[in-house]
Amino acid sequence: MINRKQFLGMTAAAAGGLFLPSISSEAKASNTRTYGKINELVLTNVLLETGFDYNAQGQVWRTKTELFEIYIANGLIVSIEKNGNTKADNVLRVDMRGMLMLPGFRDMHIHIDKTFYGERWYGDPKPGRSVKDMIDLERKILPDLLVRSVEKAEMAIDLMNSQGTYFARCQTNIDPTSGLKSLENLKIALDNKKNVMGSEIVAFPQHGILYSDSEGLLREAAQMGIDYIGGLDPTTVDANMEKSLDVMVQIALDYNKGIDIHLHEGAKTGIPAIKHILKHVEANKALQGRTFISHGFALGQIEPKELDELSEQMSANGVGVISTVPLGRSMMPIPTFYKHNVSVMTGTDSIIDHWQPFGSCDMLEKAKHCAELYGWTDEFRLSRALQIATKDQVLPLNEKGERQWPKVGESADFVFVKASCSAEAVARTPVREATFYKGKKVYSRGNV
What we know:
Elements: H1 4-13, E1 22-23, H2 25-30, E2 40-54, E3 60-73, E4 76-82, E5 93-95, E6 100-103, E7 105-110, H3 131-145, H4 149-162, E8 165-173, H5 181-192, E9 198-204, H6 215-221, E10 228-232, H7 241-254, E11 258-263, H8 267-283, E12 291-295, H9 304-316, E13 319-323, H10 334-339, E14 344-346, H11 363-374, H12 379-385, E15 414-417, H13 422-428, E16 432-437, E17 440-444
Parallel strand pairs: 2-5, 7-8, 8-9, 9-10, 10-11, 11-12, 12-13, 13-14
Antiparallel strand pairs: 1-5, 2-3, 3-4, 6-15, 15-16, 16-17
Helix pairs in contact: 4-5, 7-8, 11-13, 12-13
């Protein structure tokens, strides 16, 4: 078991760049295949969490770790052994020099189809801040944004990889101005990057289903390999909550898609919308586990009793929440969602565009924001904060301190950081040293 003091001593000894992973001389001599093209490798000196240490009061005060070897073949983890115990002849070995391995991150709400990322700095004044104001602006600028949208989407994917993200749920505009072109260009970018980024696509009626008469376009998009049908503020934009939501749900049912709706509305109109969605999901099992409320600010504006009741309904019907973990007045009740086992995921939203310029694509930072907002400052709760960034909210250790990740047979999707444990990683958000997707290195800072 390695504690923090030992870990810091090890990192100090590895200062001056020697900490960066390198290929062992034995591997170089026995295997001349180029790293990144092989189907098998063994990662050695991988730091994994193994349990918790408790104080006299039974509280977690430290995370225990040990060094392991991770054997990867054909994109899967095929063995996890203590250092020196992996039996694998003529297989490339990569020394990770004691870096902590964490589950790879998933950005579950991002708009890369209309980003300014890769262009000049953009801080131009906006004509207004309502959603309808922004729709009017989009109608003017979308044709120009489409010209380089493939290239910029690919650059955004590279940025996500550099932050430890291997999977993204991408929103794409479906509207009369861009037609299906945003979707077509996004699909090109995702296909070009399919070996470094897994993905899902939401057909998002950014200008309103009814407000811009986009039902026909959504139905066309539903036949073009997308995964979710989106929606937008059914009262404040579409001006007919029930009709807007009914159309969205019917398209999803007709084409066997999930639902992911942007709901920015306050409690007065947003809560009735959520309840209407829940009625549909309760009546249609095909939507259970496949329906998500993105943003959902209304849920942070109601009394605890009503929130508990709604959260229970959402959990029972597999309706999840995707939150950007907003700062300020729109603080979301994420601890309540967790209490009721509501699936909670996070995402960048936009990196830099006409909506806002603050996106970093850093899901570890989102976990840190959760810890800061809700006062999770101790070892145990900091370690729990990581779940908002990972697949199925998986954490290296379960509540009892038993290792539950990684597992043999799982896809080799993970990220390496210089930290002694996940609690430290959340609190300090160290740079990502390497990102792996399906066993392949898709990003590294050094000589991995």
